[in-house]
Amino acid sequence: MGNSQASPSSASSASFVMASRAFSKQALDDLRAHFSSLAAQSGTQGRAISRPVFLDYFGVRGALGDRLFQLVAKESSVEDGVTFEGLIVSKATYERGTKDEADEFIFQLCDVMGDGILTRSDLEAVLASIHETIFADNKEAREGSNKDTFEAFLNSAVFSKDAGGVSEKSMSLSDFRKWCIVMPSLRKFLGSLLMPPDSGRAGFQVPLLHYPENSSELLVLNKEYAWHIGGGFSQHDVQEWKLLYHSSLHGQSFNTFLGNVTNGDAQTVLVIKDTEGSIYGAYASQPWERHSDFYGDMKTFLFKLYPEASIFRPTGANKSLQWCAVNFTSENIPNGIGFGGKPHHFGLFLSAGFDQGHSFTSSTFTNPPLSNTSRFRPEVIECWGIQVKGSNDGKPELVKGTVLERFKEDRNMLKLIGMASASD
């Protein structure tokens, strides 16, 4: 299916014909409508989308936006923009191709200099574009953000490839893939740049952080960190995160922590800053409840935030996912909260005194020690409750107890019909 405004040679090109097969007729018609609208604004007699219109529509700022336009325009038959054929060929490779094809396209995309060598300077430009695109243009995301945080994202990248004639090492495709694994928000963002901007593009959403007034300077978590952690979630909707516990606000108390987090949503993010300045934590997909053994599910993961940022997902090697032991007297059941590994040798653990913890390599998450030393002392402990936006609209906040204790209005209604006493 060619574009009536394109030349016959480009419309019949083998690459375009092959790429078209990746889309349904309806999808092609929708893309054609988008193309026609953008081309009409471009001053190209409808032949192509100009660079300014392309960048304004897709909303990717800085060097990354320029490189995206360059790659898509390369598949086009004109010199002044992106043709319909070029757009389809690029999207078919980038969005509908094999994993190898998509990875190669994104790898080239991050080579913003276009010299075939992916260096630290390229990634600095990519991260600067991401920050400008997601945070600088969004007032809600901009408040409470910190551009310097992106340095930690760069610190998790590995450059192992020797580049001829260049003193610094470059990033191989294998290095890049490994970086994307520990930086899932980055991969989601880079993989959705040609989607319509009104479609809720993956990797563009920033969680909404709710916390008490005048407490922002106490917080360890910022918007960039939340964006990074949120990439590990399976949900695609914007999440709202509510501060349930902060050691500086509520006191460094295990009992207070449990009291606060069990009154909140089931999913929580634990953030720890230790006395050496490292920041790390875990996402707990299950409620914090007293157990004498590990529990939880495969959604749980560990993460590092500073001085480098990474996410470590469960490997399936074991089920040692989440730990919450309270008031046990057995030495085999250490009181506190933890993740991965085994008792006394967790992937991450906070003692019930909240005054010490440890982090060891674990096969549960294939994580390295999250702290600089295997044993650490926490300086700040935060816990955030996660609520997917819109999933609990109109419902009261979750609290412990029976259903009748949670919903007093329901209880009163049951009393009127004589059922409350029978339900106790």
UniProtKB/TrEMBL annotation:
Transmembrane ranges, per UniProt, are none
* SMART domains noted in UniProt: TLDc (SM00584)
> Which Gene3D superfamilies did the record assign?
EF-hand
Pfam families from the xrefs?
A: TLD
PROSITE patterns according to UniProt: TLDC
Q: Which residues form the TLDc domain?
A: 219-387
Domain of life of the native organism: Eukaryota
Q: Which PANTHER family match?
A: CALCIUM-BINDING EF-HAND FAMILY PROTEIN-RELATED (PTHR23354:SF95), NUCLEOLAR PROTEIN 7/ESTROGEN RECEPTOR COACTIVATOR-RELATED (PTHR23354)
This chain belongs to the protein called Predicted protein
| Organism from which the protein derives | Hordeum vulgare subsp. vulgare
